Amino acid sequence: MKRRRFTWKAIFLFIFIAPCIYDALRAQPRVYADSAFAPSLATMKKYVIIMPDRYSPSRRYPILYLLHGWGGACQDWTAKTDIKKHVDDVPIITVMPDAENSWYVDSYSDSTARFESYLMNDLPKTVQEKYSVDTTKQAIAGLSMGGYGALALGLRHPKKFKFIGSLSGLITVPRDIDARTDLPAMKTLLLSLEKAFGDTDNSFRAEHDPFVIYKNTPSPSLPYIYLVVGVRDGYPASIPRHHEFSDLLRAYGAEYEYHEPPGEHNWQFWDKEIQGVLKRMRRVMRF
Predict the structure, then answer these.
(1) Which helix (H) or strand (E) holds 251?
(2) CA 124, CA 114: separation in Å to the nearest integer?
(3) What does pTM read for this prediction?
(4) In this predicted model, what pLDDT tens digit does every residue of 108-128 receive, in sequence order?
(5) Alpha carbon distances (Å) from 126 to 99, 117, 122
């Protein structure tokens, strides 16, 4: 009799308790840092990734590449915003790469700094080999330098992305680089711009200028473009350039929206506005 009672207890444990223990053991951290070799840069590169809740390899997930600003790194979004909380109920893989101060281009003057190639080729290959990604539902977004990067990369590779999000994007780059030479406090920034785009006006700049490259793709084939910049952004040319760019997109027949809410060029603004980006992204990509 004792043996039979033990058997029933064992069956109960197996049916009701064991699956919970198994789920707990197999659970992985939702937010973690990783790294992989980047052939385009000939070095290891770090990235931070947020996995969707209850991730299952049997399901394919949309993916968002979320870019940092100038002077930042891959951990900025998780360290300085509530991005993990914002994507808690969003079934998406969020990848935050480290692009240094590259402006997200294959540098005009440094053949070893091929960051566009890294972000468009190496990193997606790494992520897609490790995780179950729906490559038909890819988005790219970023803040400040990363806002420019999201626009430039998304418009240069429109077949890869369904959605582009730019928060306080420095879309005055690269066309207004020369106008910044009177800002001595921005010397380090200017050096990075010259490294990325060259120290004189050239065709490379036009090839990476959002005001030019959107016309390389018929309007129905462009990704959806979400633009937001605070009314107190701090960069004098930013809002006029956003107005100009929005007018061009509207005349071209592109699908886009532009927001100019209260706010500055800071993390408080980006933490709030990324929520609107995520909401619109879900509607556009339908997941």
Answers:
(1) helix 238-252
(2) 15
(3) 0.89
(4) 999 999 999 999 999 999 999
(5) 16, 13, 6
